[in-house]
Design a protein that fits this description.
This protein has about 400 residues and is α/β, with parallel strands linked by helices. It folds into 2 domains: about 140 residues, Aspartate Aminotransferase, domain 1 (Alpha-Beta Complex), CATH 3.90.1150; about 240 residues, Aspartate Aminotransferase, domain 2 (3-Layer(aba) Sandwich), CATH 3.40.640. About 40% of the residues lie in helices and about 20% in strands. The strands form 4 sheets. Strands 4-12-11-10-7-5-6 form a 7-stranded mixed sheet, sandwiched between helices. It has a 4-stranded mixed sheet with strand order 1-2-3-15. A 4-stranded antiparallel sheet has the order 13-14-17-16, covered by helices on one side. α3 packs antiparallel against α10, α4 packs across α10 and α11 runs parallel beside α13. Bound molecules: pyridoxal-5'-phosphate. Pyridoxal-5'-phosphate binds next to α5.
Length: about 400
């Protein structure tokens, strides 16, 4: 099918809830994408951050194929070998990264569900309903996750949302201290705000936030849905700040391309009682097999170290670009934002015409989230194209 056929057909049925770019992506391999007309792109979006291990990775594909032929669905109401092994392997990573002695893992199917479970857990364990989130934070689009998301454009058509949620300036501990009290069930925060424009918090902020939550009896929920699985040059971005949260949410790349969400917490804070939370597809053996392969590939191919090295190099190169269109270049690992003085949409379009597929983060931030397997030569090409496009 060509672009016209695909876009006409999809437009006949889609809900209109998501704006689309005038391209039909039909194939991917590693850090390359192809559209319906055969045009090739260097992927700097990793499908909104879920392809950290790249597209069609042979080990992920093989793991999925093997599990497809064995057992696809096994509800959480029964035990399953793949789920058990996945939990053990993921727990090892989380416990090491977050300095947890042990952990509970609640699987689901998306980022928004992982946040939803975190909010339910915080309410359930503390008996309190007040939740604090941050200005520019993005946590998903179901009613609970949407309530802690900041941007009014996503929310105003759906109000009233859940009560008791307040937003406070990000990376500002005084503002947080003024709001966080002993009625607060939880604080929800990203280590680097992704959709909100690629803004990173500081170690001082996160350490002080940890102390405040402890002093005032609130749980600290960290949303690592975009920053996790090596993206920022650590397995989890919390490690940059020696931060040990009470609950973390993961999704996107943890499923290697299959839908998966994870909510995890150390046992000391408590657990759900049977029957109180769950999901038909959560922890299905197919997604667990894919996720086990992701954990293996990230280790074998040293993707965390790769993100740190390539991200540092790319940030230096982009910060050195001579362009009057750029206000600031910032980021952590392979999560980079170029804040432009004008709108980002036309720039994204021109980049795509030159074979670079990038993302927006708000109206004027150009966001780069390439698969961590990307070659340095591809990134050199990205820098060359950026230079041409942004100095034009
Ligand atoms: N949290 C963060 C930080 C995200 O970036 C996203 C998605 O972009 C979500 C939550 C929601 O995840 P999902 O789209 O899988 O529901």
């Amino acid at each position: 099918m060509n672009y016209q056929q695909i876009s006409d057909l999809e437009s006949t049925y889609n809900s209109g809830g998501v704006g689309r770019r005038p391209v039909a992506l039909v194939r991917g391999k590693g850090a390359r994408l192809w559209d319906s007309e055969g045009r090739e792109y260097i992927d700097c979006a990793a499908a909104h951050g879920w392809a950290n291990v790249g597209h069609s990775h042979p080990k992920i594909t093989a793991a999925i194929q093997a599990q497809l032929e064995t057992l696809v669905a096994a509800p959480e109401a029964a035990y399953n070998d793949q789920r058990a092994l996945w939990m053990q392997e993921l727990a090892q990573v989380l416990q090491g990264s977050l300095n947890w002695p042990d952990c509970h893992i609640q699987p689901s199917n998306s980022g928004t569900e992982a946040i939803e479970a975190a909010l339910k857990l915080a309410r359930y364990l503390t008996g309190k309903t007040k939740i604090i989130s941050t200005v520019r934070g993005f946590h998903g689009r179901t009613m609970g996750a949407l309530s802690v998301t900041w941007n009014p454009k996503y929310k105003e058509s759906f109000e009233p949302l859940i009560p008791g949620v307040q937003h406070v300036a990000y990376n500002n501990i005084e503002a947080m201290s003024g709001l966080l009290d002993n009625q607060t069930a939880a604080v929800v925060v990203e280590i680097v705000q992704g959709e909100g424009g690629v803004h990173a918090g500081t170690t001082d902020y996160f350490q002080a936030l940890r102390r405040l939550c402890d002093e005032r009896g609130a749980l600290l929920i960290v949303d690592e849905i975009q920053t996790g699985v090596g993206r920022t040059g650590k397995w989890l971005a919390c490690e940059h700040h020696q931060l040990s949260p009470d609950i973390i949410a993961l999704a996107k790349s943890i499923g290697g391309g299959l839908p998966m969400g994870v909510t995890a917490w150390p046992k000391r804070i408590g657990s759900f009682k049977a029957g109180i939370h769950g999901s038909t597809f959560g922890g299905n053996p197919l997604a667990c097999a894919a996720s086990r392969a992701v954990i293996q590939v990230v280790a074998e191919e040293k993707l965390v170290e790769r993100a740190a090295y390539l991200g540092g190099w790319l940030l230096d190169e982009l910060q050195a670009l001579p362009s009057k269109q750029i206000r600031e270049v910032r980021g952590l690992g392979l999560m980079i934002g170029l804040e432009l003085k004008g709108k980002v949409t036309p720039v994204l379009q021109t980049l795509a015409e030159r074979g670079v597929w990038a993302l927006p983060a708000g109206l004027n931030v150009l966001r780069l989230l390439p698969p961590l397997v990307i070659d340095k030569t591809d990134l050199e090409q990205v820098v060359t194209v950026m230079k041409e496009v942004l100095s034009a």
